[in-house]
TrEMBL record:
Pfam family, one: DUF538
Gene: LOC105117264
Signal peptide residues on this chain, from the entry's feature table: 1-20
This protein's UniProt keywords: Signal
Key word Signal present: yes
Protein name per UniProt: Uncharacterized protein LOC105117264
Amino acid sequence: MTKLFFLISLIFVLITFTSQLEKQKPPTAAHTELTNYGFPIGLLPSSVKSYTFNQTSGEFSVELGGACKITLPPDNYLAMYSKRVSGKIVEGRIAELDGIRVRAFFKWWSITGISSSGDNLVFEVGMITAKYPSKNFDESPQCEGKHSSS
Ligand SMILES: *[C@@H]1O[C@H](CO)[C@@H](O)[C@H](O)[C@H]1NC(C)=O
């Protein structure tokens, strides 16, 4: 009887543990700020060192440890984050974005804005837009190339 109870407890602990792993918590305050404005944490790599934010104007600046390379889901576009990423954020919209580029058609393109509409994120590259489900950005990615940058 006690053995059975022990086994059931163990299974319960394992289930709780794995379900907690699935819901990743925002790694930094900058990520939490993203969620406050209706964006998923996966838009920023986990290597945020510091950030400044003017709540009145929405202007922000995020310092990463260094330039950061990430493969973006779901189409595996290569994205390059500069050491400093800045822009202007309001509910559901990031404008005047500077510091994120994606590689497509043999060129680097600057992502100039991102909108959040319902379950989708709309990325703007100048006049061109591309829509992706937000759920692809539920986790904050690690920078590639370096094993440990901190
Ligand atoms: C924040 O933005 C407002 C409006 O643009 C500006 O007046 C203010 O000086 C800014 N504050 C800081 C600390 O930069």
